[in-house]
């Protein structure tokens, strides 16, 4: 009787911490999208589903991670995060682009496409 409602495959975007930043983001072979967020941030909650969609859409071409700025403040400080959500794209260990605020998916897609 389980076939009434098909389960949606939902791949949660993994979190990155100060400790895993170097290996997961800077040393990644493929481009990486990172969302800087915090649990108390309303606009962050609005952009989470968009990031999840992008992670599925670009699976195999782009890695997507989230950084909780409350739990990993040193990464946020290093990249001068002043407002969240901020989405950054890294390639070959370098920050290539940053999009600040809860923006439409199309804005992020445009940014991603430049680095694939």
TrEMBL record:
Keyword Disulfide bond set for record: yes
Entry's Gene Ontology molecular function annotations: enzyme activator activity; protein-disulfide reductase activity
Keyword hit for Methyltransferase: no
Cysteines paired by S-S bonds: 41-44
Record-annotated Thioredoxin domain positions: 1-116
Alphabetical UniProt keywords: Disulfide bond, Electron transport, Redox-active center, Transit peptide, Transport
Membrane spanning stretches: none
Domain of life: Eukaryota
InterPro entries attached to this UniProt entry: Thioredoxin, Thioredoxin-like_sf, Thioredoxin_CS, Thioredoxin_domain
Cross-referenced CDD domains: TRX_family (cd02947)
A Pfam family: Thioredoxin
Family, similarity comment: Belongs to the thioredoxin family.
NCBIfam families, A to Z: thioredoxin
PANTHER family xref list: GEO12009P1, THIOREDOXIN M4, CHLOROPLASTIC
Name of the protein described by the UniProt record: Thioredoxin
Lineage of the species this protein comes from: Eukaryota, Viridiplantae, Streptophyta, Embryophyta, Tracheophyta
